[in-house]
Amino acid sequence: SISLAGITGLEALVKGNYIDVRFAKSGAPSREFTIRPKAPPLNTDAPGLHLVLTSDKLGSIDIGAPILYRQVRVGSVQSYQLSRDRQRVVVGVHIEPEYAHLVNTSTRFWNSSGITLTGNLSGVQVKSESLQTLITGGISFDTLDPKAPTVTKVRRFTLFDSEEAAMARGVEIQLSIDNADGLREGTPIRFKGLDIGKIESVELNPDLSGVLMKARLTSAGERVARSGTRFWVVRPALGLLRTENLGTLVSGPYIEALPSSTPGERQARFQTLAEAPNLLGRENGLRLTLSAPRKGSIKPGNLVTYRQIPVGKVVDLALGEQADRVLISILIEPRYVPLVRTGSRFWNASGFGVDASLFKGLSLRTESMEALMEGGIAFATPNNAQMGEPAKPGQTFALFDSANDEWLEWAPRIALRSGAR
C-alpha cells in the first residue's frame, strides 16, 4: 500500500501479495476460514493496554491511525464501529506495553486529525498536531493527574473533538439572553479586563423565547458562579462626546461578569443583560433626591456639576407617588459632600438658554458642551451666611429649569474632605 501516509507491505512489491495469519489460542479445529481485506484488531489479551473511545463522529480516523502522546507514537487504532443505538462511534485502540503506564483515570483523548482553524476579526489561529495526523488522521491524549489510579483493563473514555475541549477545566454555567446578536462559540467572559471563561455553545431555548448559552468559567469559577453575580454584554458605543469599548469593533462583543460583594449560594443559571446594569447605587457618597415637573433630557449616568466640575452622577429616575412629579436620585462623591447645604439650588444644565433684546441682540447660554449634548445637572451654594446646614442623606431639593443669575455669582469658601473616596 503506497499513499501519502506511507508505505506498508513493501516486500509484497517484490514477492507479490501474500496472506498473513494470526493464530487463535483456543477454539474448535476448522478447515474453512474467511479472508479479511485488512488485518483484524488485536485480541484483547495481546500485550499492552486495550481501550474503547466513544465519540459523536469518526472524522478522518482510520484503522492503523496513530495514537500520540506529546507527538510520540505510542499505539494505534484497531477498529471502529457504530454503537448499538447507532448514535455514537466506538473506536478500539491499543497502547503499546512500554507506554501503558501513561494512561490513567484522568487521561483525556482527542481527535488530532487535520487542521483546526479558529478566528475572528482580531486574529486567526491554525492548529495541527503533526504532519502524520494531518495526512492519515490520529488520536492524541494527555494525562491531567499523573498520580490518578492506573488503568489495567479495557476501559471506556470519551474522544473529544479537540485538545481544547478535552483539557477544559473549570465550572460550567448557563447564560440566558433575549438576543444573541454578535455572540457565538468562543466569545470571552471577562472580569476586570481579564478572561475568566468563554461561551462553548449558543442555541435557541426549546420554547424559542430566547437564547441559551453554555459557558465554562476557567478562572475564579467557584467565586463567580454564585447567586448575586451579574452578567451583561459589552458592545462598542460611539457618540459625539463619548466613545466606549472601541476594542470590540475589532474583537466583537464580550460578556462582562460582576460577582456579588457578598457571595451567595452556588448557582449554575444566570440571566444575561443586554447592557451594563446601573451600578452607581453601590458607590459611596451622599444620596439626594431632586424633584422636577418633567424628566427632560436627564438620564442615569449624567453628571452633577459644581462650578462646571463633576462632583456626582444621576443614579435613577422615577415618578412620585402621585405621578405628578419626577424624582431624580443623585449621588455626590464623598470628597464633595460638604458642598451641598440646605440652601443649595439645583437646576437642569441640559440644552441651552436664549436671551434676546432689541439693543443687545441674541445670546445663548449653556453650562458646558457635554451638558448640551448629553444632559446634566448643576448646583450652587449660597455664600457662607446663607448656605444653611449640611444636607442630610435622602434630603429632597427642587430641580429648577434654569439658574438665576444670582446663583451663578455665589462663591462660598467650603473646605472639601481630604482623602475621601
Question: What does the model show?
Answer:
- It is a single chain.
- The chain is mainly β and about 425 residues long.
- It folds into three domains: about 140 residues, no CATH class; about 100 residues, no CATH class; about 130 residues, no CATH class.
- The chain is about 10% helix and about 40% strand.
- The strands form seven sheets. The protein has a seven-stranded mixed β-barrel with strand order 3-6-5-4-10-7-11. It has a seven-stranded mixed barrel with strand order 12-15-14-13-19-16-20. Strands 21-24-23-22-28-25-29 form a seven-stranded mixed barrel.
- Strand 22 and strand 23 form a beta hairpin.
- The longest helix is centred in the first third of the chain and has 6 residues.
- The radius of gyration is 35 Å and the shape is rod-shaped.
